[in-house]
Specification:
Helix content is 39%, strand content 17%. It is an alpha/beta fold.
């Protein structure tokens, strides 16, 4: 069985921009490339799971989102990082959705597609829905980054967030994941 780190996109790997649709606005957080490369080199598959409600709200198209993802993947590939797959939920929050986080469905899909052992995998994101997605799928640990909306969630007083592991950024999440592997 393979292990994976499931990652939210906006606010976790790249800077949060309201309803990002322009690939020229993709800004990867400092040290994120290196953090992802270290996880990959340690044997984790890297899989992005993202809610893209801007599509369902009519703010941008699926094609716009694919252009943003293509830019992100190309940038990461130049750093030697391979994203296995990007699962996305295009529905607006009030619409029925098979995979919109906190649904664990995309993690289950990845488990089946890539032979992932969810109990040895991690979810990293900047919102409660990211944490819940991981918990709902039975991952080893869900980690909240303070980038994006993470700091707001941390200070929200939500008791669910209080049980999460909270770090400053993706680089610290990588450190935490890699440290957990050592005897």
């Amino acid at each position: 069985m393979n292990r994976a780190v499931f990652l939210d996109r906006d606010g976790t790997i790249i800077e949060e921009k309201d309803y990002l649709s322009d690939p020229d606005q993709v800004v990867i957080f400092p040290r994120a490339r290196e953090a992802l490369k270290r996880l990959q080199d340690a044997g984790f598959k890297l899989i992005v799971v993202t809610n893209q409600s801007g599509i369902g709200r009519g703010y941008y198209t699926v094609e716009d989102m694919h252009r943003v993802n293509t830019r992100l993947i190309a940038d990461l590939e130049r750093a030697g990082v391979r994203i296995e797959r990007i699962y996305f939920a295009p529905e607006a929050p009030e619409r029925p959705s098979r995979g919109r986080k906190p649904s664990p469905q995309f993690l289950f899909d990845a488990r089946d597609e890539f032979g992932i052992d969810l109990s040895e995998s991690y979810m990293v994101g900047d919102k409660l829905s990211d944490l819940e997605c991981g918990w709902n799928a039975g991952v080893k640990q869900s980690i909240l980054v303070r980038t994006g909306y993470g700091a707001k969630w941390e200070s929200s007083g939500d008791e669910k967030v209080e049980r999460a592991n909270v770090v400053n950024n993706l680089a610290e999440a990588s450190d935490r994941i890699l440290a957990a592997r050592k005897p």
